[in-house]
Every structure is written in C-alpha cells, then in structure tokens.
UniProtKB/TrEMBL annotation:
Substrate binds at R190, W205, R212, D281. This is GDP-L-fucose synthase. CDD domains: GDP_FS_SDR_e (cd05239). The lineage of its organism: Bacteria, Pseudomonadati, Pseudomonadota, Gammaproteobacteria, Moraxellales. GO terms for biological process: 'de novo' GDP-L-fucose biosynthetic process. The keyword Oxidoreductase applies. Keywords: Isomerase, Multifunctional enzyme, NADP, Oxidoreductase. Belongs to the NAD(P)-dependent epimerase/dehydratase family. Fucose synthase subfamily. Pathway: Nucleotide-sugar biosynthesis; GDP-L-fucose biosynthesis via de novo pathway; GDP-L-fucose from GDP-alpha-D-mannose: step 2/2.
Length: 325
C-alpha cells in the first residue's frame, strides 16, 4: 500500500503523552501536513468549535488521542468530568470527521473497557461481557462509546474508523501530578522524592499483588500509525464482523510489587518498600491478548526496564513541567 505523506493529518491531543509521540513519529516517517490545535485554540468539547475547525482545515485523516485521563484517585473524585468530557470529545470529533468526508480515523481507547473479571489475557471479544471495574467505570463507558461510534459510522456510512485499545501507558510527557497521575509516573515521582529527601521507606497504595501490563508510549504511537496505515482489505480480512478495535500491549505483565522494585532500582532508592492494603487495588489482573495485532505484523519492542529508564530520564529533565500538571 502506498502512503500519501502529503495528506493533512489532524492529531487531536498533540500535547498529551500519546498525541505528542504520534506527532514525533509521523514527522519521522515524513508526513508533511500535520495539523494540531491547543485547547485555547480549539475546545474539543464544543460541537460548534469542532465543526468549524474541520470545515476550515479540510482534514484527510484523524488520530483521536485527546482525552481526560487520570489514575484511581482522579477517577474516584471526578467521575462526572471523566464521562462528560470524554463523551463530548469523541462525539464531536468523530461526527465532524464524518460530516466533512474524512474517510480514515484512529480512535485511542483504553484497556479499562474490558470487564473487571475478564478472561486473561483479554481478547477483543471480551468487550461488554461483564461488569466494569467500579473505580473507573465512567471513563470506561465513555471509551466504549467511542468504539461504538466508530463501528456505527463504519456500518451506516462505510467509513474506515479504527480503534486501538492500549494497555497501561507511560513515557515522556506523562502526567506526574501527585494525586491525579497513573501508577508509573506516581511511583517515579515518589521514589525520586524519597531519594532526594533521603527517606528510608516508600509506601505504595494497595497490596502489591495485582498484575499489570505496561507499554512505552513510543511503542503505542508506532502501533497506532501501523494500524492506521494497514490496507483496508487486509484489515477487514483479519477482523471479526463488527469488531473495529484492536488491543495494543506488550503481551507480558508484572505485579505492582515487581514494578515498584524495578522503579526503586531505576531511581536509585535503597530503602524499604511498604504496601498499604487499606487502599484499593483495582482490577486483579489486566493483560491484553495481542495476538490479533501480532498477526497483522506488529509487536512491541521496548522492555519495561529500558522504558522506565527513558521515562525517568525525561522526568529529570522536565521536573518543573511535570510538577505543573
């Protein structure tokens, strides 16, 4: 399949961790017309603003990486924000893309779309087969709606709107907020502070037993572009009817305890690790079945230790920026 590098590609959420990685890799591949907009330039929750943007810019392709995201604490504290903002962003962008004859769109979802007790590793077909994890149900429902929006526009209008479901992501430009971040940036920040303050103990939320899979954002960006560039005939030949989403992950997982021990080594922390079992663990295990993506020809290449070292190096060089999030 010949790739047209002159197509006008809109990356929604280009300042976020995933969006920025997609922009970097599109540039490296030679794409010449990458369109971006900051929140002050374009409020994606405003239907009118999004409609005008698409009418003005004549977009050819869309990577929908914009979303309101956060960890367990943020999801518990701000459920209305998570479901409302994500629903509005998805509905506005996907509908405006259709209205303006954008044939190709990539929607980035989340592994939290799968049931709390889904079969492990989680197949794409596990979607909507059981109850969701309660701590992030509003966010998960919004992401499921995004998948179904893509499927519905494909069914009704013949669009080519694809969805990728990443596992837990980390890397440069992550959110290192002390309360609203995900587990890896939260632990990197906490262990770094412990080293700086010469503490002899770091306390980690939960029992340490849940198992999680982690994928470096550069791998996620590479997978997103790879799936977007797949020939439509190949894509359809490898999908089940009405199944537009593809899992993206590393294919291996580890316990939270093992993650914390690795982060301690990466940051140089020599003290004790303690686990506060009174805090929520979340889903017992979340491992993606990535066989479908591997059959399509893509596999993750960055191992966890190397990825953590890369993320920590970025954090050290951008502490002021990371603290402001």
């Amino acid at each position: 399949m010949t790739i047209d590098l002159d197509q006008k590609v809109f990356v929604a959420g280009h300042r976020g961790m995933v969006g920025s990685a997609i922009v970097r890799q599109l540039q490296e591949k030679g794409y010449q017309n990458i369109v971006t907009a900051t929140h002050s330039e374009l409020d994606l929750t405003s239907q009118q603003a999004v409609d005008i943007f698409f009418e003005t810019h004549k977009i050819d392709q869309v990577y929908l990486a914009a979303a309101k995201v956060g960890g367990i604490h943020a999801n518990n504290e701000y459920p209305a924000d998570f479901i409302y903002q994500n629903l509005m962003i998805e509905a506005n962008v996907i509908h405006a893309a259709h209205q303006n004859e954008v044939q190709k769109l990539m929607f980035l979802g989340s592994s939290c779309i799968y049931p709390k007790f889904a079969q492990q590793p989680m197949l794409e077909s596990e979607l909507l087969t059981g109850i969701l994890e309660g701590t992030n149900e509003p966010y998960a429902i919004a992401k499921i709606a995004g998948i179904k929006l893509c499927e519905s526009y494909n069914r009704q209008f013949g669009r080519d709107y694809r969805s990728v479901m990443p596992t837990n992501l980390y890397g440069p430009y992550d959110n290192f907020h002390p309360e609203n971040s995900h587990v890896i940036p939260a632990l990197l920040r906490r262990f770094h502070q412990a080293v700086q303050e010469d503490l002899d103990e770091v306390v980690i939320w939960g029992s340490g037993t849940p198992m999680r899979e982690f994928l470096h954002v550069d791998d996620m960006a590479a997978a997103s572009i790879y799936v977007m560039e797949l020939d439509g005939a190949i894509f359809k030949a490898n999908t089940q009817p009405m199944l537009s989403h593809i899992n993206v992950g590393a294919g291996v997982d580890c316990t939270i305890r093992e993650l914390a021990e690795t982060i301690a080594k990466v940051t140089g922390f020599k003290g004790k690790l303690s686990f506060d079992a009174t805090k929520p663990d979340g889903t017992p295990r979340k491992l993606m079945d990535v066989s479908r993506l591997e059959q399509l020809g893509w596999k993750a290449s960055i191992n966890l230790k190397d990825g953590l070292e890369n993320a920590y190096h970025w954090y050290l060089g951008n502490i002021d920026q990371a603290r402001s999030k």
